[in-house]
Amino acid sequence: MIDSSPPPKPCRPPLVAPLRRGESSPLLNALAEGRLSILPAASPSGVPNPVPPLPPGSVGGPSGSPPPPGSALSAATEALPAAPAEPAPDDLVPDEADSDEAPPPLEPLPDLPPPPPDEEPVIPSPAPDSIPVEIAADESEGNTDEDQVILRGNARIRSEEREILADQITADTRTTEILAEGDVRVTGDGRRIEGQRARGNLRQRTVNLEGDVTYTSVLQIPNERVGPRDLPITVRAEAIDYNFEQRTGSVRNLETTLQGLRFRGESGVLLPDQRLQIQGAEFSFCPVDERGRYGYRLRAQQVDYNPLEGAVAQRATLYIGNRRIVTLSRYEIERGGEGGSANIPLPRIGSSRLAGSFVSFGFQPTLRRNVIADTRLELATKVGLRVFTTARSVSGGPNPFLRVHLDEEVLGRDPQRLLIDRLPEVGFLLDERSRSRWSRRLRGEVSYGYIRQHNPNRRTGRGLLSLLAQPIPLQDWGGWRLSARPGLNLMQYSSGESYRDLYGEFALARRWAPRRDVRVGITKHLTGGSTPFRFDEALIPTELFGRLRWTAGDWGFGLDSRYDLSRSELFDARFSIGKVIRCVEPRLVFSTRLRQVRLEVNLLGLTDLDDLPPAGTVPPPSVSYPPDQANGCDSCDRTAHLPR
């Protein structure tokens, strides 16, 4: 009788194989051959087949052992008739030739069930989340019973497009969990995360790093004038949890500098497209001093940062030194542009020949989601309360707006100073806040409103189409750039009058450092029609203009002038002087045309919008500068508008 019981499983000690440089390891070989791989081994035809084939010529199991019970081969063997037992040595078998009896007829073999037609053998398919893994190290240890491998010395695990490098890596070949220790570097999807210790799961594509963690990535920002440029983004934190599949992560106790804006936060969320959300944030354009203090800073409940648009802070409080100044429900820093609302209600005091002594401050309340109101209130002794507000959407594209101005002081050719009211104006704006591809080429406005002019008193409706192209570079000479800029104004009045103004500007500019630039040029106007308002006329048919910004130590100086070639006289000039004290600059400004003098306080990087260089200034605005060019605010960026 044949013993069909399976042979006993041989006793196999755990595999513990140290690997020295230049030697092979059975465990590494098993991983390479697929026996311990995350993917099952593949048959010669490429179909996964985790069961090794039987050796050629064997009927039973390996080494001639009987087939395993319950297998198809065992069932077929049991269906066959039992073979006769071997005769004993002393048994006598009669010779067939000597026997007169015919041999008994052979019994027919039992009919075996035919195999199902066209049925292929069932081969287990790999798990849907199986992934290939490549490993390398100077030394390794492993245990096949525990499905564990330890890599030491230049340890590396590569899975798909992600790679983990460390001094030591412990990996579970069954769950694909890893523990990396010592100088850990994780790269993939254009991101690099470094730390001292990391836990992760290769199958789930997640990793958690702790201990002086640094997250680095690069975002390419389009620029149609100078070509795309790379913006490096670096976040330092206590710990980072990152999901490479979703490209999101959470950050704890972070610090980062983004386009000159310095952030600290209790926690944060890394979002796709290099966006960042910071909770419990403190931020400023100014660095900390030796005591860890800012010259000024804002603390916000939450800051949403988008490198292509800017930053928005919710419930932000402004501090100058340690003194609390004001709390804002929303604070927004736009990217690019040539000016705009400061959005911080720091008061301005001064005197004007027309308005008298005045005090004013501005603020920017949020009316609803993506709708803000740029507002400035001013109290003047000769005019009374003056109000200027523009409510507008900032969601993208040409944005609708509503504008109401009371007792606005404007420049006119004759008389020199005018007051007007806009009651109100409505339309669409296209500027740096529009956040559309059109705003990269054009600035403009389409509006209709009711205008009232004081002294002489005139009132009528006005439709306006105003377009101004971005500067077109023409020639560069060693840091100087010549550019051209066309513009168009079309106005139609309810009185039946119409006015048109087509103009072109040529400018030569150079920029050395923040608030160190010069720009000179000429503007020519081609006009036609008539207008009831003096301020709508081209003030100077042919105008020369100049602008100079310069700094010497902590002092800053500015000069803007406009010269009327047709009358050969100076039309207007503005002078400014200020001194920087830890990124806070008190500044005195005087205007000859309005006979106005005012004192204002600027926070460098946030409210010094008058110091922004024109769009044609070269080289393009940078996100940071060397300390020796900072001029009183060591390496602080002096533009409230993030570069486009």
Q: State the separation between the terminal residues, measured CA to CA.
A: 89 Å
What integer is the average pLDDT? 74
**In DSSP terms, counting alpha (H) and pi (I) runs of 4 or more, how many helices?**
2
Strand-residue proportion: over 45%
- Order of strands across the biggest sheet? 15-16-18-19-20-21-22-23-25-26-27-28-29-30-31-32
Shape designation: elongated
Largest sheet: 16 strands, antiparallel, barrel
Kindly name the structural category.
mainly beta
Q: Radius of gyration over alpha carbons?
A: 40 Å
Percentage of helical residues? under 10%
Q: What is the β-strand count?
A: 32
Poorly predicted residue ranges:
1-5, 9-65, 70-99, 119-128, 336-342, 609-644
Description:
It is a single chain. The chain is mainly β and 644 residues long. It contains two helices and 32 strands. It has helices spanning 26-33, 72-79; strands spanning 133-136, 139-143, 148-159, 162-172, 177-188, 191-201, 206-221, 229-243, 248-258, 261-270, 276-284, 296-306, 310-320, 323-334, 348-352, 356-363, 366-368, 371-380, 384-393, 399-411, 417-430, 442-454, 458-469, 472-477, 480-493, 498-513, 516-529, 542-552, 555-564, 569-579, 584-591, 596-603. It has a 16-stranded antiparallel beta barrel. Strands 1, 2, 3, 4, 5, 6, 7, 8, 9, 10, 11, 12, 13 and 14 form a 14-stranded antiparallel sheet that branches. Strand 29 and strand 30 (569-579) form a beta hairpin. It is elongated and about 130 Å long.
